[in-house]
Predict the structure.
Amino acid sequence: TQLLEQSPQFLSIQEGENLTVYCNSSSVFSSLQWYRQEPGEGPVLLVTVVTGGEVKKLKRLTFQFGDARKDSSLHITAAQPGDTGLYLCAGDPYNTDKLIFGTGTRLQVFP
Amino acid sequence: EAGVTQFPSHSVIEKGQTVTLRCDPISGHDNLYWYRRVMGKEIKFLLHFVKESKQDESGMPNNRFLAERTGGTYSTLKVQPAELEDSGVYFCASSQGYYNEQFFGPGTRLTVL
């Protein structure tokens, strides 16, 4: 059973388009994190959302935590080729200090 | 400040052989984690060290995997004997303390033929 489901799995868009990636679970998380991973590198933390309903912005990226703290979304405005990569959500639902990762969304932005 | 480093970056071995992966955490980070991603699956937790002690090894697949962190600095993950299903990317991460941000290394891609 996959605890964190991400959708879509793959996304290919043109530069300038907007997109949203979803991370869903049936479990409640005290916090959720979003990572971005590029080829040959490990995941790099983008943001942590903690409070239900919280919205955080990082330049053209907007992250939202669901009110019930079971889901999160990542919205990218006017995507750029530099946004290309693998986006991962992750959380620690049991407060055991070990991360559970989502299945990932591979984004390709074409110029 | 140097990030988490892992060695080797790639390893190709035959089934039945032994492989040892190494992770050097960020200096001063007491917490060290091992994760892996096998083909087509999500990244999964293997184990967690606090200094030299194994805090949680609930994710270790079986007794063919042995992790050590002598002296509380670098860590090694040995697979002996390797099986085909062990192929994947093994990530190491470190953090300053519990529930702090985990910084990931670039991973070691292991291929078992």
In short: The two ends of chain B are 37 Å apart (CA to CA). The first strand of chain B starts at residue 5 and ends at 7.
